[in-house]
Amino acid sequence: MASSPQVIICKGAICWGTGEAVKVEEIQVDPPKASEVRVKMLFASICHSDFVRARGHPYPCFPLALGHEGVGVVESVGEKVTNFKEGDVVIPIYVGECGECENCVSKESNICLRYPLSVSGLMPDGTSRISVGGQKAYHVFSCSTWCEYMVSDENYLMKVDPSIDLAHASFISCGFSTGFGASWKTAQIQSGSSVAVFGLGAVGLGAISGAKLMGAAKIIAIDINEKKREKGEVFGMTNFINPKDHSNKSASQLVKDLTNGMGVDYAVECTGVAALLTQALESTKVGKGKAIAVGAGIEEFVPVNWLGLLLGRTLRGSIFGGLKPKSDLPTVATKCQNKEFPLDELFTHEVPLTEINKAFELLKQPDCVKVIIKI
Ligand SMILES: NC(=O)c1ccc[n+]([C@@H]2O[C@H](COP(=O)([O-])OP(=O)(O)OC[C@H]3O[C@@H](n4cnc5c(N)ncnc54)[C@H](O)[C@@H]3O)[C@@H](O)[C@H]2O)c1
Ligand SMILES: [Zn+2]
Ligand SMILES: [Zn+2]
């Protein structure tokens, strides 16, 4: 039985249109429907993909109630919800796992066909639970975490141990887990192999952690921000390339220079810079290299060198690092709980929800990795 069927009026961060500043507005959050859960958010964090959505990609959905990383406490549940109860600590996820569809029963995919990644900005029934100024607001994927309250379908939530560090729980709801999973599940990195990770945000640092866990012998990190060198070291990279130090060479050539001209076994692209996808691909070995596309930008098409691909390399895309939320994500949460990842290194800044725009300024600073939004 729903324990709190009232509409809640609270604050939430809204983007009204492409390129417009985010405003903290009074929003209305509807009660959860039958299979839904309403969550009181405690902490949220910012992932680069929030900016991709705020710029109207892949489809413009405005007003947009932003945020898809976070952690909160269940406030009320719909009448058919059996897996969650008031007081549970939960994180949002944006791919479900029905366990029965063709992709769920396959080891090859985490893209559940029944509960897929939602880019419509709406709940699975095609409606929204948030409104602002009398207008329907859209969600980001299956949630809106930069709000005091949000509603999500129960298939897009995961319970975490209430003793978990809340900032760390927020980081594993997207960015860090995505990179970790890209190395673990999508690339399935072999022990003793070589890996190049392009871009050391939370996603790239997660990819380094995953490569390390899989026993990679060489982990080359590439970033134009020199401050990321020390972060990469903490997470387990073995070599760092700052392309700005070598303006006459491509990033792929710089990776080859560190691997006897051969290239790496795997490359994980985590910048979202379109031109780097072909660099990632070409940094891998001719005949058998695998490049994983994780970064997301605003371009509809990305250039990939045709011959570079024809020469026996594989290019594979990955959503949420190929992690199945029920089968794989609990492993990441347990490792997080056991402090097996140096996640404190990600947490560089904190702002209250009311000062959300300050967070965007902080993100431009070279020493910033993750901004926690205290709700
Ligand atoms: N596929 C998915 O499921 C998924 C999930 C989460 C995030 N993403 C995407 O992954 C990407 C990374 O997300 P994030 O939150 O870690 O981003 P971020 O902005 O924190 O990190 C990006 C890093 O790339 C570096 N970089 C930028 N341009 C570069 C260049 N030309 N050469 C080398 N390094 C460069 C930056 O200095 C930064 O360290 C984004 O595109 C995001 O949208 C995808
Ligand atoms: Zn994200
Ligand atoms: Zn499924």
From TrEMBL:
GO cellular component: cytosol
Keywords: Metal-binding, NAD, Oxidoreductase, Zinc
GO biological process entries: formaldehyde catabolic process
Lipid metabolism among keywords: no
Cross-referenced InterPro entries: ADH-like_C (IPR013149), ADH-like_N (IPR013154), ADH_Zn_CS (IPR002328), ER (IPR020843), GroES-like_sf (IPR011032), NAD(P)-bd_dom_sf (IPR036291)
Molecular function per GO: S-(hydroxymethyl)glutathione dehydrogenase [NAD(P)+] activity; zinc ion binding
Residues covered by the Enoyl reductase (ER) domain: 17-373
The protein's required cofactors: Zn(2+)
Signal peptide: none
A Pfam family hit: ADH_zinc_N
PROSITE patterns: ADH_ZINC (PS00059)
Oxidoreductase found in the keyword field: yes
Assembly behavior: Homodimer.
Protein family (similarity comment): Belongs to the zinc-containing alcohol dehydrogenase family. Class-IV subfamily.
Stated name of the protein: Enoyl reductase (ER) domain-containing protein
